[in-house]
Amino acid sequence: MHSQFAWQDWLVFTAYFVVMAVTGWYYSRQKATTTADYFLGGNKMPIWMVAISVLATSQSAATFLGGPDQGYRNDFSYLATNIGAFVAAFGVAVFLIPRFYAMRVTTVYELLEQRFGASAKRQAGIMYLFGRVFASGARLYMAAIAVAMILFGDIQATSVISAVLILTIVGLAYSFVGGLKSVIVSDVIQCAVYVGAALFVIYFLAVSIPADWPTILDALANPADREMSKLTLFDWRLDFSPGGVFTVWSAITGFVLLNIAAFGLDQDMTQRMLSCKDAKQGAKALIWSVVMVIPVMALFIIIGLLLYVFYQRPDLMLSEAGQPIVQSFEGEQITIFMYYVLNEIPVGVRGLVTVGVIAAALSTLNSGLNAMSSVLVQDLYRPMMEKRGNREEAHYVWAGQMGMVVAAVALSAMAILCYYWQQYSDMPLLAFALSVMVFSYSGLLGVYFTTLFTQGGSSASVLAALITGFVVTLAMQPYIQSLLLPEDWQFNLGFTWQLCIGTTIAFVVCWSGRNNKVLAS
Q1: For a FRET experiment, which of 243, 315, 414, 436 has its CA 20 to 30 Å from that of 205?
Q2: What is the pTM of this model?
Q3: C-beta atoms surrounding 12 within 10 Å
Q4: 332: helix, coil or strand?
């Protein structure tokens, strides 16, 4: 199962890095002179580029590899969760983006400073940084595993660590000088690359299936191994288990909260909207990004549906049923898409898929580096330094660059830690790390709902709510319940329902601090 790069694959690989190097050099010629330039692109970024950047930031190597798995195992129901994305986007566009622009903030957590004081801003920023290190570090690890499999033909420690370092160094080098402007331009290129890779894979899968489209659609509509059609878009079951997170009921509850947090409270996403000229353009960029994510995600699900026909319908492939598919590589569980890439994908397309995985990883990595640096500098470092006297803007731009280096080291270390944790521990760290932003989101949502819609809360209750949201969500994880509760008391909720419960409790905790002095209404 060891894939080998042919000269065509290396040509694609080389061309990709040449394009990245040239564009990186071009957009880094004019150095940022202020933090507004470095962290917000000087508020001059066009709507279409910001919209694509938000789209690219929301995708990752996990999406690139996991989207096809969703189509292979299930159906189109994941697309229905965009109902929640639209509701959330309109809510963020109406309630949050105008306030961010009115306050001329660099990070989303500065809004809390006006209401509860500087400590609340620091606490929210630290909670974001904590979640982002785990979440982005784990996604970097997933991308490194895939790159090591394809590029080096194994997943030994040296190969995975080399892949982590390659991804991190490329991402840091591209955006180090130019700041957010370079990141957004990079996101546009990365998005084009991984969407192009998906289209090529769909084409090669389609031509490798010796059946016409009506026959393929009929096989998907009437699968032999499940009751529901694989073309199902709306799943109306009331299912609170992890298998029910893509139902309509989950889309209009938990996914609304998840997307409010992602679009309005996560510096990774919101930073892009704040790079536009004004609140109106920022809101338009957000809405357009939600519109564009539907066809892009549909491409990856279609890959999974075609893989289902390719591997599970030998009658349509005009072949006899072969050996059972073992989705593993040197003991590591892999998705069906990776199995296809390692075993079946044509020469040349393997290189394109490799750069597609890298592009999806870098779009998330670049965004995380700049966003984490902005929080480190604007919410933590700058207030501390201003107490000691005024510093020139150039100093904080330099601090922003150093902040990106610190963030790069932290994410690389987390990715490498994920590798060794998976090797020597039975605790599902990777599953925890991939969903850890939900742990952070519960508290942040509770705090922001209190800030926007009530007169309650205090600096002390903000901290209590952030901690409560994390602890409540953690307590609902099966691996924690197995340690603390009798078997009859244990339950397993989908992450969207966990977010609903965690947010509600965090809101009550934050709102209950209304006896303390509020700085501003």
Answers
A1: 243
A2: 0.87
A3: 20
A4: strand
